[in-house]
Design goal:
The chain has helices at about 15-30, 40, 50-65, 80-90, 100-120, 165-175, 180-185, and strands at about 1-5, 35, 70-75, 95-100. The chain is α/β, with parallel strands linked by helices and about 190 residues long. It has a domain at about 1-120: Rossmann fold (3-Layer(aba) Sandwich). A 4-stranded parallel sheet has the order 2-1-3-4, with helices on both faces.
Length: about 190
């Protein structure tokens, strides 16, 4: 089963948009795909009206996108949250499908293609490792350490493999309210 990220509006007509997203998930499932729709799942327990909770939900959604092989984008307008998801999909080279009016399809493809051309996938380096990588040496440390997750202590997202330094940076960004600014700059 191909993990498929469902990218569609959440804000605006909130209830209608969640119902539409559920329909998109059902459609994907019936096509043999494994739909991932953070805005359907996280809105069950995250208050989208509280900026810090919204940021945390968006960050978790971005992390889930990294595990997907396909992103399906639906709508007629690209929201700020959708823009970040489409851009990251372009950077990571995730397969793209777009559903909507022709001008929407063109806008999504433009965001995706510009990101794919102008951005590089972030590389996590070991502490103290020089920027250049010698032949035969891996470019990035393997992501093997899983932090202890305690939502009451303010963990960004459960069961995501982070290096300790990256986890600390994310926590600082969350507390400062700067999460989304750092995502495309090689952060989360």
């Amino acid at each position: 089963m191909k993990m498929t990220y469902i990218c569609s509006p959440c804000r605006g007509d909130y209830e209608k948009n969640i119902i539409k997203a559920q329909e998109y998930c059902r459609e994907a499932l019936l096509e043999g795909l494994l739909p991932i729709a953070p805005h359907v799942y996280f809105t069950q327990f995250v208050d989208d009206e509280k900026p810090e909770e919204r940021e945390r939900g968006l960050l978790c959604g971005i992390q889930l996108l990294r595990y997907c092989q396909l992103i399906r984008v639906y709508g007629c307008r690209v929201s700020a949250g959708m823009y970040n998801e489409i851009q990251l999909a372009g950077v990571l080279g995730i397969e793209l499908e777009v559903y909507g009016p022709p001008e929407f399809v063109e806008r999504v493809k433009e965001i995706y293609n510009n990101a794919a051309v102008t951005q590089k996938q972030p590389i996590l380096r070991k502490k103290g490792r020089p920027t250049g990588v010698s032949a035969g040496a891996p470019a990035a440390a393997p992501l093997t350490k899983e932090p202890d997750i305690n939502p009451a202590a303010g963990a960004a997202c459960a069961n995501i493999n982070f290096e300790e330094d990256l986890a600390r940076v994310l926590e600082k960004e969350l507390s400062a309210g700067n999460v989304l600014t750092g995502i495309m700059a090689g952060g989360a």
